[in-house]
Amino acid sequence: MPYCPNCGKMVDDEDSYCPKCGAALKQGRDELTTEAIDAGYPEAENPELEISVAVAGYIKAEPGGEKIVEGTIQYNIPEWRPEVTQTRDTVAVRQLERYGWRAWDNPVNDWDIRLGTAKPYRLRVKAGVGRGTWSLGGLPLTALSFETGVSQSRISFDAPNPQTLDVLRLQTGVGETQLTGLLNARFREMKLSGGVGEVKLAFTGPNPDKDTHVKIDGGVGAFDVKIGQTVPAVFYVSGLTGVSTRGEVVKRRGGFGRGEYSTEAFERGGKPALIFDIGLGVGGVTLFTI
Length: 290
What we know:
By secondary structure, the chain is an all-beta fold. The protein has one helix spanning 264-267, and strands at 33-39, 48-53, 58-63, 69-75, 83-86, 90-95, 109-115, 121-135, 141-156, 165-171, 174-180, 187-203, 212-227, 233-246, 249-255, 258-263, 274-289. It folds into two domains: 1-30; 33-289, Pectate Lyase C-like, CATH 2.160.20. The two termini are 38 Å apart.
């Protein structure tokens, strides 16, 4: 629902003038533009795909086919036209913020893209302000770096990665971030840095075939960590953090500022294991099995 730029009153999309102050509402609104995105794989053996969105909008990404990235971007502010560049080892789709938009401008910036499944590659995402649904299951990723700003992001791995993902890096800002099916990503190491907000992590999928490390550093926020019931896992938690447990998670030892927890599958001698190092400033963490 848009707002009047003069007095802030909520108005209807069909209104030409503000019913409260009479200000014109249609000025400055541009026609909707649809930009096609179509980029093949670079020549390099393990190329990188970069998706960078600094402005408000909605992003839908899902597995595609022979192209490393394809789809459409719809926007109604001309300065938001995306830039697509390609080198021997990189494809970059960037949309930089060059316009001081306001909430009542009612901006449109919708991405509907498909990511390649034909060859292995590295994926780097910078999602600033907005919402996104990222379906990354089955993508042959060798590395993943994901950075969010003020956003609501849903990242899922609904099918196993056909490649081994060396490092999964995630940096969250303000808002809510949810990751599901994380064990399908088949990462060797995961590093997460959180800001202010809520982060929900679901480590479901096939059990790891060797000890796997997860490092979580948070500022002020809440972390929900779900573990598959059969997954051996141990958690080392430090900081001014309240820890709650549910299901088959037990406390092994600890006092103020530091604690050690594990799943019952770990206590039964299960191996390999997920090994968590969780350090939070002021916040809370919930550990539970599903």
